Amino acid sequence: MSEKSPFVVSSDWLEQRLSEPGLSIIDASWYLPAQNRDPRAEYDAAHIPGAVFFDQDQIADHSSGLPHTIPSETDFEQEVSSMGVTAGDTIVVYDGPGMYTAPRVWWLFRIMGADKVFVLDGGLDRWKAEGRPVTAEVTKIAPSTFIAKRNMNGVASFQKMREIVGDGSVQIADARGPGRFSGEEPEPRAGMRSGHMPGARNVPVASLSQNGELKDIDALKKVFDEAGVDLSKPVVTSCGSGVTAAVITLALQSLGHKDNLLYDGSWSEWGSRADTPVETGPAQAGKAK
Length: 289
Prior knowledge:
Elements: E1 8-9, H1 11-15, E2 23-27, H2 39-45, E3 51-53, H3 73-81, E4 90-94, H4 102-111, E5 117-120, H5 123-129, E6 155-156, H6 158-167, E7 171-174, H7 178-182, E8 201-202, E9 209-210, E10 213-214, H8 217-227, E11 235-238, H9 245-254, E12 260-263, H10 266-270
Parallel strand pairs: 1-5, 2-3, 2-4, 4-5, 6-12, 7-8, 7-11, 11-12
Antiparallel strand pairs: 9-10
Helix pairs in contact: 4-9
């Protein structure tokens, strides 16, 4: 069998462990307005038994002026403790279609100090299609305390991105679709220029998964190679607002790549400013250099 990421679990694996103590299940679904899906309403109507809902718009730094940026340690602790989650739990995160927004919360928990964090392959849509149990019952939450140890070493700031774009010292992998990356399609948020950061490579989030599952190790290597990303060198991931960039981060870390950052502000920050360089057109063809 093809080797899979150590950070994903199957529906079978999760269903067999639903009643185990120390397991926390997180619904991290989030959608763009054009997708016409209400994640909270879908959670209320049907979720995996025992799951709690993680609101990516609510659990964020609202002072940044950007969508769902990394919250403070204190805010994260308060929100996640109220969900009954502790840093020592085995945490399984899922979203609707699979490998879309769950990796962002996987990444958040990891930078906040949790180390047993996984993403459900196939998401809730597959879980339901396979006839696995769902419920509309309110999840009973036991009192708990999540003690966060926030590590920002894996996060790229705006100033850091200025340096990276200026000197080309770190490869940039952009998860947006090819049309948005090239500038041929408008951004979904008003007031943003189209295009990409100079030197960036396009690694569309859809290229990393198949039917809601993260591709196997060999297939992931091929995706990065075809995009011109050299896995022996540093990489910073980006997207529209820092959510799907985490799918690239998950893929990189699944391959054992350790020298990677995630640009939290992503295109919501870079593309909305008038003082940042922007390129249009597709990424340059060719293998990683």
